[in-house]
Amino acid sequence: MNTVAPPGRLADRLGRPLRDLRISVTDRCNFRCSYCMPKEVFDRRHAFLAHKDLLSFEEITRLARVLVAQGVRKIRLTGGEPLLRKDLEHLVRMLSELRTPEGQAVDLTLTTNGSVLAKKAQALRDAGLSRIAVSVDAIDDTIFRRMNDVDFPVADVLEGIAAAERAGFAPIKINMVVKRGTNDSQILPMVEHFRGSGAIVRFIEFMDVGTTNGWRMDEVLPSAELISLIHARYPLEALGPTEIGETAQRWRYRDGAGEIGVISSVTQSFCRDCTRLRLSTEGRVFLCLFAHQSHDLRTLLRSGCDDEHIASTVAQIWGQRDDRYSELRGSGAATPDSGVRRIEMHYIGG
């Protein structure tokens, strides 16, 4: 299903509307997952951004307001680990007050590793956060600790999920990045832990984001293979998408125990439906998760430009967009080892 921008909305060169905004609020994280921030690269000597370089909450909200007026209907807060940004609930409250030209509230969501969620869940809900997604790459504690590479226990993340449930978040989405030979043994245990809980597990193919995660195609477990594995134990049936540009293919258990999703950006590209713009924590916008170029909006914000000028700049940037890396990779027209240095996952938030 290809998406086409409605009349009067921004459209890129492939007719894709601007609908989703992903905002990275920090480039820092307390985990060192190998597929995102491998410890051998992001060690104690790594220089993270200085606080003065980060967009303030007011600057983020101003940009978001401009983009909502241009068609954005969903905002996702990411990182790094977004809950490491001090007083994030204040930003959530500011963004929750935004309204579309039709007077509707924006769908405001957040993705977290869950490490401090138990302390933050109620405050985030009270501030107006709509939904939440938690990254859990294994239910087995030994495998989970090995994957986050800082010896963090899975029990603390599960307590964060429980706190989010008590705060009223539902359904909670659980994101699992699957690497063949690393945590693929956890697929069925993850299914069995969350079946019937109301949470939705989304299995994500290991992606070649950035240039530091040592991506190899033989470590990608195709989603079709994963679905077959689960279906053999717990019969599934396909569901249709809930919204335009949805990244996950949805499946439900035939016995009524809930649903799962798969995100297959390596083996089943969904570039033609991509409606996402990514804003980095220092105010640069990226048109693709696999981008190697960006556009500076922070300078516009801090040099006295009015909203109309910023809106015009965004319209020009989006109008020139023709990014479709996953699609080109799938056809052989683009390769991960092309020598082009792409943006890293921790910086742009996936």
Report, as a whole number of angstroms, the end-to-end distance: 22 Å
- What number of domains? 1
Task: State mean pLDDT (0 to 100 scale).
Answer: 90
N-to-C order of helices and strands: EHEHEHEHHEHEHEEEEEEHHHH
Which strand order spans the largest sheet, edge to edge or round the barrel? 7-8-9-6-5-4-3-2-1-10-11-12
Alpha carbon gyration radius: 19 Å
Strand tally is: 12
The shape is: globular
The CATH architecture can be named as: Alpha-Beta Barrel
- Tell me the name of the CATH homologous superfamily: Aldolase class I
Low-confidence stretches: none
Can you give the helix content as a percent range? Answer: 25-40%
Total count of helical runs of at least 4 residues: 11
Write down the oligomeric state: single chain
Computed structural class = alpha/beta
Instruction: Report the CATH topology name.
Output: TIM Barrel
Task: Report the β-strand fraction as a percent range.
Answer: 15-25%
Largest sheet: 12 strands, mixed
- The CATH class label is Alpha Beta
Q: What does this protein structure show overall?
A:
- The structure is a single chain.
- The protein is of the alpha/beta class.
- It has a single domain (20-348), classed as Alpha-Beta Barrel (TIM Barrel).
- 29% of the residues lie in helices and 16% in strands.
- It is built from eleven helices and twelve strands.
- It has helices at 57-69, 88-96, 117-127, 141-148, 154-167, 187-194, 223-233, 298-302, 307-319, 325-331, 345-348; strands at 20-24, 74-78, 107-112, 131-135, 173-178, 200-205, 236-239, 249-253, 259-263, 276-279, 284-286, 295-296.
- α1 links the parallel β1 (20-24) and β2 (74-78).
- α1 runs parallel beside α2 (88-96), α2 (88-96) packs parallel to α3 and α3 runs parallel beside α5.
- The model has no long low-confidence stretch (mean pLDDT 90).
